[in-house]
Amino acid sequence: MSNPTTNNNERMPLRAGQQQQRRDEPKIWHYEGGSDTTNSKSQHRFVLTFGILIIMLVMVISAMFIMASTPKRGLGIGGNNDNDDYIRREYPNSFSPEQIRYSEMAFKAIHQNLDSHTNKHNNGDNISRLCETTIFILRHCMKSGYVVDENGDQHCSYVGFEFAQYLSTLFGDDKLDRWPSPDRLYALSIKRPNDRVGGLLSSSASFNYRQHETLRPTSIKLGLDINGDYTIGDEDNLAANIFHDISMGQMCGKLILISWRQPDIPALARKLGCGPYEGCPTLYNPGAFDEAWQIKYVYDPPKTLAPERDDVSAERGKGGFSKHPKWTVFGNVVNLNFDPLSFSKKAGDYPPGGSHVGGRWIDFAGEEV
């Protein structure tokens, strides 16, 4: 039998489910095991997943930027963050949290100002390299109960006076004393008509003695007068006065003790060239009475004190000093460690068997307990 021939016009039998295609229709090629509908869904899922990933990435980057641009807050005793609402309510005339932001250029200008004063007045001749000066800033004594006398004047509380007495024992010239005797004492002026008592404005004729009372025992002990010429808003003038003496080489190896109002301490520290980069927090914890800020100025400290290593060049390993000497500022927050019971015990208020009268630390005003 001869093989059957196929006419070109004839169609081969169609398989089940296969549709006949007209000669003039374009051929549509399909992927094996798939269909147009399946591939379209896969593409949609891919685009949707990719879009979600992009959105999540943008959100993460935005969050990181916000965190980086938000100033870190100073932490007080127990590490509690400062309360912005408290600051706005109790101190409406002070710097708002939004204003307390720091500019690297501003601090650079302050440091350059101190350097220029030094070069202008002495050309560095009267200042030795590694000359050190420290400014010690703390808030006023405790005011539990808002102690106000008949004239409307504000004072320390009973425990606040005990704290002031304790503070005087921390400074002295003996090696056992925690800190050196201050060379100068500054307290915020007693004349502050915009002070607040219990959230209310005090009388314009009243005075606030807390900062002076905080330093009074130390003043008596060391025989130093308290400079109370500066008030809120005078931070620039106070800083200029201090910078002048530092730049003249008059404060090498000396300590300056300042008692200031709590919410304005960061502003004063800024004027003195100390911000977060140098070690001073952005805010002072409203509830912290037992902490103080130290600002140390060092003239031309060595670049590094690290020992030379064999695997680096001698030039890189050198500490050395700068070709152009300048001041460097270092900030630090310390605790005063005031314990009323411990201090009262040392004063003799809790002898064996008890005592009918306490407050013996009052008799030691300005003296060691």
Give a nutshell description of this structure.
The protein has 369 residues and is α/β, with parallel strands linked by helices.
Tally of DSSP β-strands: 8
**Which overall shape is indicated by the principal axes computed on the Cα atoms?**
extended
Going across the major beta sheet, what is the strand order? Answer: 5-2-6-1-7-8
Q: Which class of secondary structure composition applies to the elements?
A: alpha/beta
Kindly report the CATH topology of the domain at 77-306 and 314-338: Rossmann fold
Mean pLDDT across every amino acid position = 75
Task: Describe the 3D structure.
The longest helix has 34 residues, at 36-69. It is built from nine helices and eight strands. The strands form two sheets. A six-stranded mixed beta sheet has the order 5-2-6-1-7-8, with helices on both faces. It has a two-stranded antiparallel sheet with strand order 3-4. It has a domain at 77-306 and 314-338: Rossmann fold, CATH 3.40.50. It has helices at 36-69, 84-90, 104-122, 158-168, 210-222, 235-247, 265-271, 314-317, 340-347; strands at residues 132-139, 184-187, 196-197, 200-201, 226-227, 254-260, 291-299, 327-335.
Secondary structure topology:
Blueprint: H1 36-69, H2 84-90, H3 104-122, E1 132-139, H4 158-168, E2 184-187, E3 196-197, E4 200-201, H5 210-222, E5 226-227, H6 235-247, E6 254-260, H7 265-271, E7 291-299, H8 314-317, E8 327-335, H9 340-347
Parallel strand pairs: 1-6, 2-5, 2-6
Antiparallel strand pairs: 1-7, 3-4, 7-8
Helix pairs in contact: 3-6, 4-5
Region (Disordered): 1-39
Transmembrane segments: 46-68
Biased composition (Polar residues): 1-10
